[in-house]
Amino acid sequence: MTLDVTERTSAHGLEAHIRGKRIAASDVLADRDILVQIFNREREEGNFIVPAVAEPLLVWIISGNAAVQERELGGQWETSEVAKGDFFLTTSAQPYEMRWNVSSADAFEVMHIYLGVPLLEKAIHEVMGGPVEAVRLREVSGGRDEGLSVLLEHVRLELMGRGASPLYLQGLAQCIAVYLARNYLDSSADDRPRRNALPAYKFRRVLAAMEADLARDFNLRQLAEVAGMSECHFSRMFKKAAGYSPLQFFIRLRMARARQLLLETDQSIIDIGLEVGYSSHSHFSQVFKREVGVTPTQYRQ
What are phi and psi of 190, to 5 degrees? Predict the structure, then answer.
């Protein structure tokens, strides 16, 4: 099989590289900061190359279960078992390979959302409190984020309704951009390939291991084993890739989960602290205030 090795394309042009039937689309990226497309994808797709696109791409699973595999060109395949509500966030400046196999009887429907770079720059400027040199969001494969899903469902409903409003979609694009800037910003990234940094597929593997049990004590040795490296080499490459040490990044993941639980559940602060690995209420409050700027009680209010 000969692969199409086109390295870059436009947001509109990517559609030609992935098989499937387009169900609906908005066409307002140029002046409204968002392009939305909904596709019914093939049930089985063999190995193909996904060209790089300038705009960050969100792919949200509307229906169907599938095993989706990705890898850097010629690298090791990484598998994400996805279902309705899961998402991919792709920001890479490099092409990559992809394939999938649908495992459910449901149609495999997905929504593509491209956000304009100027809109993201504005959102990141607001979130960071000033200009930043590079605009890059960290990549996510097969993630689940209920807050993000609420926004994406509003986009889907608007697009599938009669007379979708470009102005309304633009407002949703602004909300999504700010949400991504708050929760998925990789401020260490730039547009150049990062030499001596942890490869994306290994980073995703380590991230999955961290997120699997946030209540577990941090264990550098185990994470280094997941990446197949010595502890020293892993720590150095991880920090170059993520902008934080493995421990700092693990704490940030814990605090992100704690913030979600504080806002979306009625669990006690003590129970939330236990769920993210803090048996001491005072220690949890101390770390939360250091990382977030307010105490858990103040954040919930």
Answer: -140, -175
Average pLDDT of the residues in 91-110: 90
With 0-12 / 13-18 / 19 or more C-beta atoms within 10 angstroms meaning exposed / middle / buried, residue 39 is buried
* H-type alpha helices, 116-165: 117-128, 146-160
Residue with tokens 């409003």: 165
Among 194, 176, 60, which residue's Cα sits nearest to residue 124? 176
Query: What pLDDT does 189 receive?
Result: 47
Smallest CA-to-CA distance from 155 within 56, 37, 57 is with 37
Please give the torsion angle defined by the CA atoms of residues 5, 143, 240 and 56, in that order, rounded to the nearest 10 degrees.
Answer: 50
d(CA 223, CA 239): 13
Q: Does the pTM exceed 0.85?
A: no
- Best CA proximity match to 86, nearest among 111, 118, 51, 114: 111
- Give me the mean pLDDT over the 34-45 stretch: 93
All domains of the chain in start order, with CATH:
9-184 (2.60.120.810), 198-297 (1.10.10.60)
Q: What are phi and psi of 230, to 5 degrees?
A: -70, 160
Average pLDDT, the chain: 84
Q: In the chain, what is the greatest distance between 2 CA atoms, to the nearest angstrom?
A: 59
